[in-house]
Specification:
This protein is α+β, with helices and mostly antiparallel strands. The chain contains 11 helices and 23 strands. The protein folds into 2 domains: 300 residues, 2-Layer Sandwich (BirA Bifunctional Protein, domain 2); 93 residues, Anticodon-binding domain (Rossmann fold, 3-Layer(aba) Sandwich), CATH 3.40.50.
Length: 416
RNA sequence: CGGGGCGUAGUGUAACGGCUAGCACGAGUCCUUUGGGAGGAUUUAUUCCGGGUUCGAAUCCCGGCGCCCCGACCA
């Protein structure tokens, strides 16, 4: 009954060959399954988390005025040759068909989105415009590692904006930066904004959004009392030196990059020779921006940073379910009947209010096992119904110790 | 790609070159049990793949494939 069979993905023991917490816990709790290094299946619980992260990101992107689209993952070789990426990008996955024609698997979508939009943009009046997608990306990493933190196939939100001049671009760029901070905040993460190199595509400074975790693979230097933060790759400053902004002592830490924003300049418009007519009736190339957020990596980072010795601890808004009902059914048929009636009533009431609920009504499974699996999954509210609870419900928050007895009539308010 | 470690039921592991590859958990069946991963009975394996050495290989050797960790790499 209900969806208790989600539980059957959980495992008692962690895979011995994973060291990072996100990989151990997500596999143990049955959120993901590894097909090969850096490539995962998302199981029912994991997919719900992924979708919830997507929703937060999607809402903020829409708020920025960007339009959601979906672009292909399979790309013709020609567009990558046009921009030089075919021969210069090491991580580009290249594949060959049976007719020996070559393709790339998308590791980014500038090559697709630029012709797509600029063939439809005629004049400055059509600008600015921004589109985004949430889709799978492929990168031929020499070494996939750390569970979901660095995969060869991963889910990413990528947005692209097109502007008539640098000024307009920068206005949007700053709005996007604020939007990003809001997203990470909503996901329960503290993201530090670093200035980092823009890579080979841009000489300009870009921003990286970093979450502190030892499982990350960037080293950042940050100020504990102001917002100064820089990737050690591009600075000569060292830990222990004073913050250039506020003179506090700088600290160094490991971090994972959960998002970035780039100034692409006019490269892609020029490469594809696709421009627009400006105010002076002259052909002009658009200034483009690129804005990424690693959706699946975020899931890994949240798991990596929010757990205890018993398991995962999801923030309310991205947890796979808001509440986990545990029905402790035993041998007494008369009692079981009452417990199940209460459970069904509670389940239906919660669902009617739009509260997502997972229900463990398994017979012949010990209470201890049910509690242990519940803790492992990290659902924010645990609601127990048993012989002992009578006409109340026992409620425990995953991240707190207290247990409260709550009336049926007050439960919805309690978990909202 | 360089270095290191590893590969045995679904999971975690044991086995000196030598008996029918042992144990625990999970899963299936039966019985008992029900507030913190319950007990008994029973079932559950091509020892990653391919060669080689040997009377005999999970074990030793060669090659491949795969996984983890460090580094490099990660527009």
């Amino acid at each position: 009954m209900f969806q208790s069979r989600y539980l059957s993905f959980a495992r008692k023991e962690a895979p011995k060959d994973e060291e990072t917490k996100n990989a151990q816990l997500l596999v143990r709790a049955g959120f993901v399954d590894k097909l090969m290094a850096g490539v995962y299946s998302y199981l029912p619980l994991g997919l719900r988390v992924l979708r919830n992260i997507e929703t937060v990101v999607r809402e903020e992107m829409n708020e920025l005025g960007a339009h959601e689209i979906l672009m292909p993952m399979l790309h013709p070789k020609s567009i990558w040759e046009t921009t030089g990426g075919w021969s210069s990008i090491d991580v580009l996955f290249k594949i060959q068909s049976r007719t020996e024609k070559e393709y790339a698997l998308g590791q980014s979508e500038e090559e697709v989105v630029t012709p797509l939009l600029m063939s439809r943009v005629n004049t400055y009046k059509d600008l600015p415009v921004a589109v985004y997608q949430i889709h799978w990306k492929f990168r031929d990493e020499l070494r996939a590692k750390s569970g979901l933190l660095r995969g060869r196939e991963f889910l990413m939100k990528d947005m692209y904006s097109f502007h008539e001049n640098q000024d307009d671009f920068e206005k949007f760029y700053m709005r996007a930066k604020e939007s990003y901070l809001k997203i990470f905040n909503r996901l329960g993460l503290v993201a530090k904004v670093t200035e980092a190199s823009g890579g080979s595509f841009s000489q300009k400074i870009s921003y990286e959004f970093m979450v502190l975790t030892d499982a990350g693979e960037d080293d950042i230097l940050y100020c504990p009392s102001c917002d100064f933060c820089v990737n050690v790759e591009i600075t000569k400053q060292k830990e222990g030196e004073l913050c250039p902004k506020c003179s506090e002592v700088l600290q160094q830490a490991r971090a994972s990059e959960v998002g970035n924003v780039f100034d692409l300049g006019q490269k892609y418009g020029k490469d594809f020779n696709l421009g627009f007519i400006d105010h002076e009736n002259k052909k002009q190339y658009p200034i483009m921006g690129c804005y990424g957020i690693g959706i699946s990596r975020l899931m890994g980072v949240i798991a990596e940073t929010r757990h205890d010795e018993k398991g995962l601890i999801w923030p309310k808004n991205i947890a796979p379910f808001r509440v986990h009902i545990i029905a402790l059914v035993g041998q007494d048929d008369a009692q079981n009947k009452i417990i199940m009636e209460q459970t069904i009533r509670l389940h239906d009431n919660l669902q009617a209010e739009g509260i997502e609920v997972l229900c463990d009504d398994r017979m012949h499974v010990s209470p201890g096992q049910k509690f242990a699996e519940s803790d492992l999954m990290g659902i924010p509210y645990r609601l127990v119904i048993s012989q002992k609870t009578g006409d109340k419900i026992e409620v425990k928050k995953r991240n707190e110790q207290e247990i409260n007895m709550v009336d049926f009539s007050e439960i919805i308010q309690y978990v909202s």
